[in-house]
Design a protein that fits this description.
Blueprint (H helix, E strand, L loop, with lengths): L2 H18 L10 H29 L12 H15 L1 E2 L5 E2 L1 H12 L4 H11 L4 H8 L3 H16 L2 H12 L5 H13 L1 H34 L3 H30 L2
Antiparallel strand pairs: 1-2
Helix pairs in contact: 1-11, 2-3, 2-4, 2-7, 2-8, 2-11, 3-10, 4-10, 5-6, 7-8, 7-11, 8-10, 8-11, 9-10
């Protein structure tokens, strides 16, 4: 691992620890608490795919006629990650995206998916993000989270997209949360099993193999450009701060139920 990658990892570690040790996990005591958490988290699961696809658009050829873009190694890295995220295997052995798995887990758990579905329906119909937020009643913290993701996407800067993808999204599920979900699954196996599968699959695929691929991709895109590395770290820091705000929103909502 390069010194530049190590620097980012060291500099963002305090923010990562804030997320991993966030107080929201301590207040998830029953199914109702988990449902609220999922209604916030689902926005991050959804816009993750848009961030990933923006990288694929920038690093590969997605238009016709086809021409080779960038290096074959980078193309391989992003295409392998996309294949895993967009068409993984669910608990029944069927191909689904991780977002579709998450929606099914929400349905099984009894979490209301009306808000996120209304949001997506509004976007599909051509409405702006602000109009979609209003139509869905999206919480402010989720709005800020998604808005920043799309600022990075619309920057069209692959090194920023890669850094926020790599450092702002991977390896942020703490053991504490896994223990809570495992305990709830023992009590309510017919309502938590799909969410448990989603988390287990996320850790198996994203937290190990994909994290190594994304580190390699970020290093290749920033290369020896010092300005790119500085900008990548700043973008990563903001991404993690938005995640903390999202968790704050879920925490406050659970407390006020």
């Amino acid at each position: 691992m390069s010194e530049a990658l190590k620097k980012i990892q060291n500099d963002i570690e305090p923010l990562r620890q804030q997320i991993i040790n966030h107080q929201v996990y301590s207040v998830i005591n029953d199914l109702e608490d988990l449902r609220i958490f999922m209604q916030y988290h689902v926005y991050a699961v959804w816009d993750f795919m848009s961030l990933l696809k923006s990288l694929q658009i920038n690093l590969t050829c997605t238009s016709i006629p086809w021409f080779p873009v960038g290096t074959a190694n980078t193309r391989y890295l992003i295409n392998e990650i996309v294949a895993g995220e967009e068409s993984d295997i669910d608990s029944k052995g069927e191909r689904k995206s991780h977002f579709e798995m998450y929606l099914e887990a929400m349905d099984q758990c009894g979490a209301d998916t009306t808000e996120i579905q209304n949001f997506l329906t509004a976007l599909k119909s051509g409405q702006t993000f602000n109009e979609a937020y209003q139509a869905a009643g999206t919480p402010a913290e989720a709005k800020n989270f998604v808005n920043f993701t799309f600022e990075i996407i619309e920057s069209n800067a692959a090194h920023l997209q890669a850094s926020t993808f790599t450092f702002g999204r991977e390896d942020l599920i703490p053991n504490m949360f896994l223990t809570i979900v495992n305990d709830l699954n023992k009590k309510f196996p017919d309502q938590i099993s799909l969410f448990k599968y989603y988390l287990d699959r996320h850790i198996e695929v994203d937290g190990d193999h994909h994290s190594h691929l994304s580190l390699e991709m970020t290093e290749a895109l920033c290369s020896n450009n010092e300005d790119y590395w500085k900008a990548a770290e700043l973008a990563t820091i903001t991404s993690l701060e938005r995640r903390i705000e999202l968790w704050d929103g879920a925490y406050n909502r659970i407390l006020s139920k």
